[in-house]
């Protein structure tokens, strides 16, 4: 899709400023350095093609997954061609086949958290659907992810490493294709780990599947026990019915949301900030404000992020950044 002239203009404007006052310039380096909160990340959708390739390679070496093609050949090379319709089959037919034992689940979780940390994310709410496979139960799946998150959060707690840390929280997803009792099991698992790293439940999955009204008891139980609720809604035309809307609103969700997964669409959060800056003519201070607004709607306290944002803003002030708005 051709970029709008406005975006091009902004990009030229941004790059022409780079040589003068580096810290005031909203460019790739700035948006990466900006401490950010990622509040809509699906674990399986955030796995890079390279990590999937590594997972695939490990399995093939063991004589498994021999019918699967190399992910580097299968993942769409032009990310702009992926849409909500072509998106779900990639997961159903492919990614989940590579993520069905503890070893691969943990390897993928490690890589995803490391990728977000490298992109300057300081607070991450990672969503994942507890998935049953031949070798893992839903409980074992959550335990596997939970262990990796725990290791990262311990690392974050180290005083001297504060600057490099990323705080990670988990949101367990109820997939629309689940039976009501499976949704109850997800809530059980979320409640079991509430107080460690699990901060909420999510409703996700292929929007053309399932009947959300059947999840009401599970969702209300989660909320009554203090879990937060985030919901995917109206992702494709035609499924956003009045009944679905009134059901979801009756749950009083904390957040409604929909984003494009970085693993599939290839646009990291820093790039989303850059695109916003280019298309809406935002300056450095505006972007700090955007990150602060995300920090204000996290499901848990985001101390590391707030500290980092304060420091980042101090650095901007020292550089005497003109507030562009
Ligand atoms: Zn989503």
Structure notes:
- By secondary structure, the protein is α/β, with parallel strands linked by helices.
- It has one domain (5-14, 23-52, 102-318): Metal-dependent hydrolases (TIM Barrel, Alpha-Beta Barrel).
- The protein is 50% helix and 11% strand.
- The chain contains 14 helices and six strands.
- It has helices at 5-17, 28-33, 49-61, 71-74, 84-98, 102-118, 138-157, 180-193, 216-224, 242-250, 262-265, 269-280, 284-295, 303-318; strands spanning 36-42, 121-128, 167-175, 198-204, 228-231, 255-256.
- It has a six-stranded parallel β-sheet.
- Strand 5, helix 10 (242-250) and strand 6 form a beta-alpha-beta unit.
- Helix 7 packs parallel to helix 8 and helix 13 (284-295) runs antiparallel to helix 14.
- The protein is globular, with a radius of gyration of 20 Å.
- Mean pLDDT is 84; it is low at 1-22.
- Zinc ion binds at residues 40, 42, 204, 232, 258-259.
The CATH homology group name: Metal-dependent hydrolases
DSSP helix count? 14
What percentage of amino acids are in beta strands?
5-15%
- Radius of gyration (CA) equals 20 Å
What is the rounded distance between the termini? 29 Å
CATH level 1 name: Alpha Beta
Would you report the number of β strands? 6
Kindly identify the CATH topology.
Answer: TIM Barrel
Across the major sheet, the strand order is 1-2-3-4-5-6
What's the shape? globular
Total domain units: 1
Largest sheet: 6 strands, parallel
The distinct ligands, each listed once, are: zinc ion
SSE-based structural type: alpha/beta
Uncertain runs with pLDDT below 50, 5 residues or more?
Answer: 1-22
Helix content: 40-55%
GO molecular function, one term: adenosine deaminase activity
Family: Belongs to the metallo-dependent hydrolases superfamily. Adenosine and AMP deaminases family.
Organism: Meristemomyces frigidus
GO biological process, one term: nucleotide metabolic process
